[in-house]
């Protein structure tokens, strides 16, 4: 048994506007599975769930983003210095703004989407040549080694590297974005605005997977979600995530 990361869930006051921004940013399409939810997915006949694609779900909530930096963000890939500059300029015309998260002088550009969710536009790096527009999903954490142990067991993604400073996983198929846990001082202080959703494989039981995650150190999470088909949990450092119903 194992789970696969299938989407990044972003909370927003206006799911439609934030969803359109991300669709334009990534060159993807938008749809909606219901009121208050905007799904951002690759075009070209894409059928969810794809074995390796990590999509974006934008979900409407009544609370605005707090001033605190999100503990989960996206890094976007580029193919050259010119592409990076062009992408940054285009994103700003779509409503992105420059963001200061204490990055100092770095080769990547830190921006925020129209509701303040931080993300990075990376300089060209050969390692991200085949990831698609999302190079990696980055999670701030205190202990990357502990996160590597938990998420490596929770998912079927392959651990590529682990140090005291970061841990990197990727689909065993060797394509799609990376998942990186990056050591940052300080733990979680506010509910996550952005989180990862995991999906069981066909035939696997959602409750059995949830029980397995609890044994690995996950805890149940009550966000007032009520009677929904997904299960809300948090990892050993308190990062929120959901286990969706089987596809």
Automatic annotation (TrEMBL):
Gene3D superfamilies the record matches:
2,3-Dihydroxybiphenyl 1,2-Dioxygenase, domain 1
Q: In this protein, which residues make up the domain named VOC? A: 133-246
UniProt-listed PROSITE patterns: VOC
The name this protein carries in UniProt is: Glyoxalase
Entry-linked InterPro entries: Glyas_Bleomycin-R_OHBP_Dase, Glyoxalase_6, VOC_core
Name the species this protein comes from.
Streptomyces swartbergensis
Pfam families, A to Z: Glyoxalase_6
